[in-house]
Amino acid sequence: METVIEQSCPMCYEESSVSMLVNVHEIPYFGEQTELTLACKSCGWRKTDFIAGDGGEPVAWTIPINAGTLDGRVVRSSSCTVRIPELDIEVEPGIAADGYVSNVEGVISRFEDAIRMLMRQAQSEGDIGDVDSCGAFLQRLADAKLGDDDAVTLVLLDPLGHSKIMHDSASSRNLTDEEVEGLYTGPIVPVFDMSDLE
Asked: pLDDT band at 81, cuts 50/70/90?
């Protein structure tokens, strides 16, 4: 269902330029997921998110990164912080954060792409120390993906409870109030009552 909504764009402030596309997917083992996409026809701003039918409690999901867990399914909502704590790297929700469905290997590939981008920048600036650091991060991730130990983990921290990892090796726990307070959920996107759109 696509609907033009009576809302100004949060980026360019153009009136009534935002459309909303809602799709409901039944994802095996995850259940019903609502995919919500907001897009501005004026400036091109776009935001996609996944909302779980049974989510809602602040949650942390953890899975070891190794050859046996790379196929683990991941639903990451736009409010979720993704961490690899052993490497002290994370991705927080930003202004353009999108939700996505992937697997553990796909999430790791996103980290590797970002590290390679930083590495190219460091190379162009002649910063050998940062180039070496990026290389060490990439090597550690490559070793984790090929190995079978649990020394490196992928962690999803979602204060809205919409993210999930589906694999026998994944575990979840509720986030504490202190953890929730320390997490950024990204920009506030207006929530609309569906009856207002009819």
From this structure: very high
Give the angle subtended at the CA of 73 by the CAs of 24 and 47, to the nearest 5°: 45
Q: Which residue, 75, 64, 69, is CA-closest to 161? A: 75
What are the residue boundaries of the structural domains of the chain, listed by start?
Answer: 2-197
Residue located via tokens 């649990």: 150
What is the residue type of 167? H
For the stretch 10-34, pLDDT in tens is 888 888 888 888 888 776 655 677 7
CATH classification for the domain delimited by 2-197, as one of 2.60.120.1040, 3.40.50.150, 3.40.50.720, 2.60.40.650? 2.60.120.1040
The pair of three-digit structure tokens given for residue 116, joined into one six-digit string: 């390679």
Q: Round the CA-based radius of gyration of the chain to a whole number and report it.
A: 19
